[in-house]
Amino acid sequence: MRLQDPVTELRGVGPKKAEALSKLHIETVEDLIRLLPRTYEDRRQVTPIAQLEAGKTVTVMGRVEKLIDNYYRRGRKQMLRVLVSDETGALDILFFNARFLKRAFQVGRTYAFYGTVTETGRGRSLVHPQFTPAEEREEGILPIYPLTRGISQREMRAWQRLAEEVYPQIEEDLPEEIIDGEFTDGGLMDPASALRNLHFPEDRESYLRAKYRMIFDELFVLQTGILAVRNRSSAGRGIAFSREPVEEEYISSMPFPLTGAQRRVVKEIMDDLVSERAMNRLVQGDVGSGKTAVAQIAMYKAVRSGYQAVLMAPTEILARQHYQGIREDFSRHGIEVGFLSGSMKAAERRQVLEGLCDGSIHVLVGTHAVIQPEVSFKRLGLVITDEQHRFGVDQRIRLREKGGDSSEEPNVLVMTATPIPRTLAVVLYGDLDISVIDEMPPGRTPIATRSTDESHREDCYRFAQRQMEQGRQVYVVTPLIEESDSMDVRSAEAVAEELSTRFDGRHGCGFFCVALLHGNMKQAEKDRIMEEFHDGQIDLLVSTVVIEVGINVPNATVMIMENAERFGLAQMHQLRGRVGRGTSKSFCFLISQGSSEVARQRGEIMEKSTDGFFIAEEDLKLRGPGDIFGTRQHGLPALYIADLVRHAEILQEAREKAQKLVKEDPELSRPEHAPLRSRVLRLFGGELSLDL
Ligand code: ADP
Ligand code: MG
User: What CA–CA distances, in Å, run from 546 to 120, 297, 495, 518, 571?
Assistant: First the structure.
């Protein structure tokens, strides 16, 4: 048997089983052995019935004494009781709504049961354990595979055993210099032994070493790929801006002094901008930390150096807001700012495109529309994307390629308000240098946050009303636009209707203008509402998460989140950042449905902290990284065994080794790196069109 043989080469795999296996993306014998167990069951020991403890997962060998079939009309529940015994005692095995199992047991025969002991009113029992006749029992540490319909664990284990024959054909594909390097515990296990120990662990130590090998392997290849891309991104000569400190005149014209963190980041950016190497930098900073101000300084520098700059934002609302602010500010300096979005009239659009071509527009602000093929610049020198987590790596590269056919690449600046924990940033943005604005402009008081439930909604509304009476404005955010089948969610439409009625003046509450904003509205409608809210004509805005990013209305002081349990922590933090942007004290109420332990913990974190980085770390702990960042949207391949949070240390180790290797062989072109190179290409596939 060969690694690349089809699975049907294995005894017991016919066309039908092969079809089921293909659902797991298993076509070849190699695919099969690379399907790793998701967990293991320890079936080495049999526990005598007398020694069972509630909560423990055990194997019990019991002789079936009696089968009792109960049917509870009231609860429409059917329960099968199997009474079993061994030399030490008797035990109830319970199955609910599984009457067919009656036929699976023979009185007088002994079975092996595997399950968790529960304490019921009548003593200890096993509920829905796995079972087999005693003579067919599998012993040892059993791997449990992620499976699909039509394949049993038993079958999969048998096939994995048969496939052991091909292990000697598995070759080491990490370069020798990596394997021979320093490792924490006794070197890197070879891949064949690692696979064998993951499928059929011999002992704990070998299992741990096997797992380490696979995790390191995965993270190392990933990091090598990312760093090779970075290499490619910055291989070309960058556009160097004027060495004169032209930005100083702009900085001194700003209405406020920069914070220390802003000054530091501006310096990091300026150093990049005047150098011959293209800038490739991520600026991370909490909502309101003043990233836009920093971006404007960079744009000013570009324009004064004779280049154009483009800023791309993920939503039309945000793009327009940036446009208005930047245009107003730059007009005083004689800098022409243009706008592009998908919803523009053809004539307007043509005018902007012309302005970009002939260089009369110096700065372009827009949505994804700015990366359309028709858009070309006269002399693009700086590319900025805001809220990077919404764009993929390839989009960033496409935007950079707008620099035209000049051999010099434009500088790239990426801004994100989603505070990404360092461990993740390193992976997600491995191809970027990172700057952090970790200080807020002075005069901000932290937003007072209360996590609460239904029963306090009325109090929240009354509080909001008092704030509106003082001339302040309020946001109410809901997860959904319309009423849906899942009943427990308050939709934006329903909430808006309820609150308009409440505040229409007829109910003695005073008159306040309530409006609704959601993503399905026409652009013009959204713009009008945002404008009216901005100008204070709307007092209370009910909205879906479209207001999430960047909206700036300093007079808004109350944020109420409905169904807070439906938002991620990082997202709640973003939403909360819509208030507290002025000098008045701001408030945030999180109204959750239900009362799970996780919901309580989340509420507590939000009440305790307004530090986006801390919240992001906690979010990561509670939810795991896959949830927060669909790796797809980053153009990164999904990880199979490694976990970026739990394996942060291995990640660091893999990263250091990958850095060293890529530095010595940037194209991975040395013959001894060929197997690694082909793995990197396979891993990234078309996603990054990584033409090394
Ligand atoms: P971000 O883009 O990081 O969310 P912004 O750049 O929009 O933050 O800044 C938020 C608000 O703070 C804006 O109103 C901006 O004018 C103001 N701001 C920025 N930097 C400073 C500073 N150094 N001192 C005072 N206010 C500042
Ligand atoms: Mg911003």
Answer: 49, 27, 16, 6, 12
